[in-house]
Specification:
Shape: globular
Distance between the termini: 12 Å
Protein name: Enoyl reductase (ER) domain-containing protein
Number of helices: 11
CATH superfamily of the largest domain: Medium-chain alcohol dehydrogenases, catalytic domain
GO molecular function: NADPH binding; oxidoreductase activity, acting on NAD(P)H
InterPro entries: ADH-like_C (IPR013149), ADH-like_N (IPR013154), ER (IPR020843), GroES-like_sf (IPR011032), NAD(P)-bd_dom_sf (IPR036291), Quinone_OxRdtase_PIG3 (IPR014189)
Radius of gyration: 20 Å
Number of strands: 15
Pfam families: ADH_N, ADH_zinc_N
Structural class: alpha/beta
CATH architecture of the largest domain: Alpha-Beta Complex
Domain Enoyl reductase (ER): 11-331
């Protein structure tokens, strides 16, 4: 089959090319072979391309990038249930291998494509919404009426988290983004307040003002170092902070642990790709219960920033690296 490879094993965006001599994936007993129609881009793909992925990859990850996709079921393993059949339109999450014409994944990680969603839209759902489900519900334990601060609100995970917080009954949703356009997008998805950090906005001051100095109950952080001290100021007593990524760096300068003790802050971290299939299957089930009905009726949506042919995957990566996108970048497999 054809798949996206990287010359010499690592490099910049222009090192990627479509390799026509990649072995077909092997169908396992309880897995499903899917012909891929589209795949979504994530920042982990950039790190994998550059051979600096910070977490241990499971053997299932392989060398081919890409963890979310949409497509058509081609064949089911003998040990599969009757949930899927050849010809079904599906979308799902994988440990890797989505930048390709075909992929083999566990049936636990597949979902049927709702009639109102396109392959393009569906390819941008699994990684972002599954990660947001962890941050908001499974780890963050958001309760109705609580307040939440979500960083990188215009990112795929950020947009998903905003909508999940709204569905979860958050009383006030604060977010940060890098332009007025992105801030307006966050508000259209359910955020009550959005701070443009590039124009000098101070989210900690806004949180203090709008919560009468109480702070927020839950912080979902994808930024890391640059926001850590302000996060401590924004946190309420007995609040929770879930670290999902560290885009600005992972080392905190001059951090006093007393800041955690004084407010009894629960500091937690979560990743998705390094979880086993059983756990990821549980996240999928939560998605089907809490999110899928709202995707079907249009209450929850996926913002697609731009669509590329997979032949132009280098341009797609460059756009993601530039941080100008507001929503998911998707590649069509042609």
């Amino acid at each position: 089959m054809r798949a996206v490879s990287v010359r010499n094993g690592k490099g910049g965006a222009d090192a990627m090319f479509i390799d026509a001599n990649v072995p077909d994936p092997v169908l396992a007993n309880e897995s499903i072979l899917v012909q891929i129609e589209a795949f979504g881009l994530n920042r982990m793909d950039i790190m994998q391309r550059e051979d600096r992925y910070p977490y241990p990859l499971l053997p299932e990850s392989g060398k081919i990038m890409g963890v979310e996709f949409s497509g058509i079921v081609e064949k089911c393993g003998e040990g599969c249930t009757n949930r899927f059949s050849p010809g079904d339109k599906v979308f799902g999450l994988a440990y890797g291998g989505a930048y390709a014409e075909k992929i083999v994944v566990s049936e636990k990680m597949l979902m049927l494509l709702p009639p109102n969603l396109s392959f393009i839209e569906a390819a941008g759902i699994p990684e972002t919404f599954f990660t947001a489900i962890q941050a908001i519900f499974l780890v963050g334990n958001l309760q109705p009426g609580q307040t939440v601060l979500i960083h990188a609100g215009a990112s795929g995970v950020g947009q998903s988290a905003i909508q999940l917080a709204r569905l979860g009954g958050a009383s006030k949703i604060f977010t940060t983004a890098g332009s007025d356009e992105k801030c307006n997008l966050c508000k259209s998805l359910g955020a009550h307040f959005a701070t443009n950090y590039k124009s000098g906005g101070d989210f900690a001051q806004l949180v203090e003002k709008e919560t009468n100095s109480r702070g927020v109950d839950l912080i979902v952080d994808l930024v890391g170092r640059n926001y850590f001290h302000q996060n401590m100021k924004s946190a309420a007593m007995d609040s929770r902070m879930v670290l999902v990524a560290a885009l600005s760096g992972s080392k905190i300068d001059d951090f006093d642990l007393r800041a955690l003790l004084n407010k009894r802050i629960w500091l937690m971290a979560t990743t998705l790709r390094t979880r086993d299939a059983a756990y990821q299957g549980q996240v999928r089930d939560v998605f089907l219960e809490k999110v899928m009905p709202h995707l079907k009726d249009g209450e929850v949506r996926v913002t697609v920033d731009q669509v590329y042919s997979w032949k132009d995957v280098a341009d797609a990566h460059k756009r993601l690296e530039s941080n100008v996108n507001a929503g998911k970048i998707i590649c069509r497999v042609e």
